[in-house]
Amino acid sequence: MQYFLNSKNIRSWLVTRHAQELLVVFSIQAFSLLAAVAISLIITNLLGAAAYGVFSYGFSWVNLLAVFSCMGFEQLALKEIPTYQAQGRKDLMHGYFRYATKKILLISVIVSILLFLISWLLQQPDDNLLRTGFWLAIPVLPVIAMINLRLSWLRSFHLNSLSQFPDKLIRPLVFLVMLLIAFLIYGRELNIFMVIIMSGISIIVALAVGNYFVQKKVLSTVAEVIPLFEKQKWTKIAFSLLMVNGIYFYLSQLQILMLGSFKGAVETGIFAIASRLSDLEGYMLFALNVVLAPIISRLFAEEKMAELQSVITRTLWFGFLFSLPVIISFLLLPSFFLGFFGDEFGSGRNALIVLTLSQVVNFATGSVGYMLTMTGHHKTAIQLLVLTAALTTLLSFLLIPAFGINGAAVSAAVNNIVLNVLMAIAVYKKTGINSTLLRFR
After folding, report:
1. CA geometry: angle at 270 spanning 269 and 271, to 5°?
2. Range 339-378 burial, b when 16+ CB lie within 10 A, else e
3. What pTM value is reported for the model?
4. Is pLDDT of 314 > 80?
5. Could you give the residue ranges of the DSSP H alpha helices within 302-377?
6. Would you say residue 35 has pLDDT above 90?
7. Using CA atoms in the order 39, 43, 49, 50, what is the torsion angle rounded to 10 degrees?
8. Which string of DSSP letters, residue by residue, matches 113-181?
9. What is the rounded distance in angstroms from the CA atom of residue 123 to the CA atom of residue 121?
10. CA atoms within 13 A on the CB side of 82
11. Rounded distance, CA 290 to CA 83, Å?
12. Pick from 295, 327, 317, 293: which is nearest to 308 by CA?
């Protein structure tokens, strides 16, 4: 066993372009994180756990279905556009941009309409607060789908920091400013439905800013080229990528959706805060994935396996060390951090500990999902995801009605551990790359 943890390795890695870009992306992520925590603190302290549960439940549904509405075409960009660039195929790039935009816009609008009609006809969820908040969130589903799609184009052009700017900086900043202004105007009369509408407006602003960057940096490079379409090929590959990304996102939202259905708004809000805090540990890993996805695809295609191994191992170690203080803090003082959101959130203490421990496993195994999908092993990723999704769904149905928040935390932790360990093993078998914090010889 060999550890890639010494001052020489750290210094040599920090001067690389990958490291510098990662630091910029992480800085944007850090701002987004701080703004999200501030927003959560304002909502929970002013309106309580039930209100935050309404907010989380509505946007969990909308974000989940926005991912499925993209049909995998946002992930397709990360895989195919770098290849088209290397081949000089601007015609295919232009064709993909046109086809993906029309397809995803149409699908997301149809999904939004169907979602509202089903909820209205069945009057689901039963809780009136949850249902009304859900209806108010639905109109931004196509907007979120277009953000996911078009910002992935910036990532495919290796404009990673720019791709994060609209959604991770502009959106939370606009939302936070609107929230503070609304509080100054309405005070205690502020309600969760006004908050949901303000969140929707911030999402629309983010799309407008993102579209400006996409037009200037991406679409302008192919504007004069006659588009060429490979619809059948794109749809086939995109579907495989949809299965991977869609199931990932389903698993990330499953517990909140089931808590809302079985336990109501209060427990949903408490778990959502515990989950948001545990996500703080994984923000660096998310930043790593933003930078690494197109790099993995390129280095693997060029068969530069030694360089790929070095980039993955050193980058992961840097991210883990950066996140370690947060992990230790949440394990030692869970009640202290939950207390900032209000007294009723103290019941999420055990959930936060369990979720934090599972994040350690998540970090230890690395960017396993991208390692499989960006190297062409979609089927293996899908098989493991379907298996884990079935297990996690079953656990959630068994544990959440009986144990509420703690049951949700256990099912989420089991999902994290089982999925990441199995994928890390698969990555090593399929590619020979060790995606974990440790390298074994």
Report:
1. 95
2. eebbeebebbbebbbbbbbbbbbbbbbbbbbbbbbbbbbb
3. 0.76
4. no
5. 305-332, 334-338, 349-365, 368-373
6. no
7. -120
8. HHHHHHHHHHT-SSSHHHHHHHHHHGGGHHHHHHHHHHHHHHHHTT-HHHHHHIIIIIHHHHHHHHHHH
9. 6
10. 21
11. 18
12. 295
Task: Give the three-class secondary structure for 252.
Answer: helix
Give me 208's structure tokens: 């407008």
Cβ count within 10 A of residue 123? 9
- How far is residue 102's CA from residue 301's CA, in Å, rounded to a whole number? 30
Q: What is the pLDDT of residues 333-357, one digit of tens each?
A: 999 989 888 888 888 999 999 999 8
How far apart CA 237 and CA 96 sit, in angstroms, is 13
Can you say whether the dihedral through the CA atoms of 425, 427, 428, 434 is positive or negative?
negative
Separation of alpha carbons 363 and 373, rounded Å: 18
Gap between the Cα atoms of 13 and 248, Å rounded: 30
pLDDT tens string 409-418? 999 999 888 9
**What is the rounded end-to-end Cα distance, in angstroms, of the chain?**
6
The DSSP output letter for 439 is E
Q: Which residues contact 372 (CB under 8 A, 6 or more apart)?
A: 244, 378, 380, 381, 423, 426, 427, 430
Q: Which of these, 151, 138, 170, 44, lies nearest to 178 by C-alpha position?
A: 170
Give the type of residue at 232: Q
Q: Count H helices, E strands: the chain? A: 17, 2
C-alpha separations of 241 from 237, 348, 379, 382, 427 in Å: 6, 34, 9, 9, 16
How many domains is the chain partitioned into structurally?
Answer: 1
Residue 31 domain boundaries: 2-439
Helix (H, G, I), strand (E, B) or coil at 2: strand
Cα three-residue angle 53-118-382, rounded to 5 degrees: 75
Q: Going by C-beta distance under 8 Å and a sequence separation of 6 or more, which residues neighbour residue 62?
A: 137, 138, 140, 141, 144
**Token code pair at residue 258:** 């089931």
- Whether the CA torsion 272, 273, 277, 280 is positive or negative: it is positive
Q: Which amino acid is at 327?
A: I
